[in-house]
Design a protein that fits this description.
two-stranded antiparallel ribbon; two-stranded antiparallel sheet; 289 residues; 4 strands
Length: 289
């Protein structure tokens, strides 16, 4: 079923920010910071960050450096049993982050955002950090705030090294879909509540985009409430009645509700107007009825 994309989630922000030396070679502080971080020389790194902050007190990369210092200095690895990224179950090494250290690092990300509120990678870093320490409520609140303020910055979003983002709204909505997947993967009441609240915010902020309605419907499916799910999918159909993903999902949910005639109706709608992939998907679900 297309509602859920399974994955093994992990701390992306650190990996995203530790990129090739060539990008940072032009800046001595950045170059040295990354070298010390990779080497795990945290005492030397802290000394460098203090100097960097005095030299460039508003540099967003410096605040990211502080975050990575705190997040990494006491991390540990342990073997755990669970579902791996490829879907198999087994033993794998999991990185455990110190919650207090990560929160201290997030404080520096907040300082950076005061100077550059349109640094999208720092917003993402905060969300990833909260997921890493399993603080799903804070992850949800941070995502909610990002969606709410996004219209103000969609034309000026930047990523690492202050690189401009093309089509900020499209990039934002595409990227944050992974966070909803994470909430669904976790599957606890708190995580699903955050998915519902954030998707409601997306609908309010971008009412002409069907994504938010589809995500909210997914959240209610995951929460075991297909009656509410169908309501939001039908709202999405009113926004765009040619969106075959919506039409197929309406058919799927009607199938869950045992309304077979309605399910057939929507699968046939998708078969009539969809591309080859969508037609095949709709036909598959229609045959499954």
């Amino acid at each position: 079923m297309k509602f859920k994309n399974y994955f093994q989630f992990f701390f992306l922000f650190i990996t995203m920010l530790i990129i090739s030396n060539s990008i940072f070679a032009q800046d001595d502080y950045k170059y040295k910071y990354l070298e010390l971080l990779r080497a795990g020389k945290y005492d030397d790194l802290k000394t460098l960050l203090v100097k960097w902050e005095k030299a460039e007190p508003k540099n967003p990369e410096m605040f990211i450096g502080y975050f990575n210092y705190y997040a990494n200095r006491n991390k540990t690895e342990q073997a755990v049993m669970g579902q791996m990224q490829d879907g198999r179950y087994g033993m794998f090494n999991d990185i455990i982050y110190n919650s207090n250290d990560v929160k201290a690092g997030i404080g520096y990300l907040d300082k950076g955002l005061k100077y550059v509120p349109n640094r999208l990678d720092i917003h993402y870093g905060k969300i990833d950090a909260f997921f890493a320490i399993k603080d799903y409520e804070s992850a949800g609140k941070t995502l909610y705030n990002l969606i709410a303020i996004s219209p103000k910055y969609n034309a000026t979003w930047m990523l690492e090294d202050n690189k401009s983002v093309e089509d900020g709204q499209k990039y934002l909505l595409g990227y944050i879909s992974q966070y909803f997947d994470k909430f669904f993967w976790v599957g606890t009441n708190v995580a699903l509540e955050q998915a519902i609240t954030c998707s409601e915010c997306e609908i309010k902020t971008y009412p002409e985009n069907t994504r938010g309605y589809n995500i909210l419907a997914t959240a209610y499916i995951e929460a075991g409430d297909p009656e509410k799910a169908i309501k939001y999918l039908l709202d999405a159909e009113k926004v765009d009645n040619t969106d075959c993903i919506i039409l197929i999902n309406i058919g799927i949910v009607y199938g869950k509700l045992k309304n077979i005639d309605k399910a057939k109706e929507y699968f046939n709608k998708a078969i009539k107007i969809g591309n080859d992939v969508e037609k095949n998907q709709a036909q598959y679900y229609l045959d499954s009825l």
